Structure to design on (419 residues):
């Protein structure tokens, strides 16, 4: 059984059809890269899987660990282990990163019938995981994402991922706007979180993040559907040749 | 609050929450009469449902209140699209040598904020409570520990059923 199984998915937002019959299978323990030009539907897929209310499913199905994902509310999906690293994390003024994250971690623990972490236990674990992305403890006391640089926001997303230990992690353009150091920190953070139980879907424009995180499979999305799937080599080919040749190939096969 | 003596100091911190069809009109008066008097006003208003929240305050600096200084901050938070926030900061200054500052902001709990918290597994009710408490932090942190905890609890109870 796949961790995530997307079948014939058609999705619209504000009346515009964005995804047109998308198919995707992701096994536990695998890292898949999803590449595509602007407007091809990458972020739509990410936000839809996370349960954003603006995205409407017209047709198709999504199953997650054998359950109907589309039947679950966004917060329930998260507690069941679906994590989205946001392309644009929002600011929450006055709410410290630590306070917020402790609430999130404990919501998941309650859901699984585990004891909640107290402040001391939480801090011990948080300190450990902060090292993963090269940040220090002062971070926990800052208002969530408020005044964070682009790199800090993305490191913070990966830090949250480490703390929440998801089964399915979707990284939506986590590499955009990062300098080389932040890119390395994010890359090594993600690699440390690759486990046999966890599946990851890494959405990106460029191949450069995939220099640090080598995917098991690469998919190219265009016009709201997967037009080509391959191994890590496909990402390099896209980097060299662009998307044009895939468009022509897709058009030829459609004809 | 009347700041009569020279160098006297006044502080006013408030949080007002209105829900359903409530209308609140709250605020304070800071009367600076003495020299070198200082005052701070931090007012946080939260409107939910069809409620309206008004801050109405007077900062008066008398003719003898040389070198007086007031800082006022009025922030409003809206939850829903049928509520309102109103701010009337009256300022009456009768000496040229003083400093009166006023800052105001109005913001809304956005769908994107709620979605972000939901994506981390936090229920909508808890998410609203976390965001509102963050908004009030500047006031709550002035309170003694026990009272701050009470204030947060009270806020949670008052917000029950505010969403969904």
């Amino acid at each position: 059984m796949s961790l995530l199984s997307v079948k014939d998915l058609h999705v619209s937002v504000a009346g515009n059809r964005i995804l047109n019959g998308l198919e995707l299978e992701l096994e536990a323990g695998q890292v898949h890269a999803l590449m595509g030009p602007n407007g091809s539907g990458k972020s739509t897929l990410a936000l839809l899987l996370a349960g954003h209310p603006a995205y409407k499913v017209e047709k198709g199905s999504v199953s997650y660990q054998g359950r109907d994902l589309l039947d679950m509310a966004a917060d329930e999906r998260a507690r069941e282990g679906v994590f989205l690293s946001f392309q644009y994390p929002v600011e929450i003024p006055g709410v410290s990163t630590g306070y917020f994250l402790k609430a999130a971690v404990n919501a998941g623990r309650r859901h699984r019938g585990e004891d909640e972490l107290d402040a001391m236990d939480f801090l011990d674990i948080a300190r450990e995981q902060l090292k993963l992305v090269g940040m220090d403890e002062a971070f926990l006391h800052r208002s969530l994402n408020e005044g964070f640089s682009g790199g800090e926001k993305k490191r913070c997303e990966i830090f949250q991922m480490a703390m929440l230990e998801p089964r399915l992690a979707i990284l939506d353009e986590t590499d955009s706007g990062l300098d080389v150091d932040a890119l390395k920190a994010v890359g090594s953070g993600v690699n440390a979180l690759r486990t046999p139980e966890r599946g990851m879907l890494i959405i990106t424009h460029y191949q450069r993040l995939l220099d640090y995180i080598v995917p098991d499979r690469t998919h190219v999305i265009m016009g709201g559907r997967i037009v080509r799937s391959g191994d890590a080599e496909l990402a390099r080919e896209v980097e060299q040749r662009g998307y044009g040749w895939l468009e022509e190939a897709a058009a030829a096969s459609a004809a | 609050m009347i700041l009569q003596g020279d160098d006297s100091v006044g502080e006013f911190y408030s949080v007002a929450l209105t829900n359903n069809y409530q209308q609140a009109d709250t605020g304070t008066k800071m009367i600076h009469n003495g020299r070198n008097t200082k005052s701070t006003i931090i007012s946080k208003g939260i409107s939910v449902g069809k409620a309206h929240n008004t801050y109405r305050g007077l900062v008066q600096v008398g003719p003898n209140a040389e070198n007086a200084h007031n800082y006022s901050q009025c922030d409003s938070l809206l939850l829903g699209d049928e509520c309102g926030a109103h701010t009337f900061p009256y300022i009456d200054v009768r000496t040229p040598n003083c400093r009166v500052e006023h800052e105001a902001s109005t913001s809304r709990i956005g769908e994107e904020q709620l979605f972000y918290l939901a994506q981390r597994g936090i229920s909508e009710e808890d998410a609203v409570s976390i965001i509102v408490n963050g908004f009030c932090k500047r006031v709550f942190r002035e309170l003694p520990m026990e009272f701050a905890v009470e204030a947060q609890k009270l806020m949670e109870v008052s917000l029950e059923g505010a969403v969904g």
About this structure: The domain at 4-254 of chain A is CATH 3.40.50.300 (Rossmann fold).
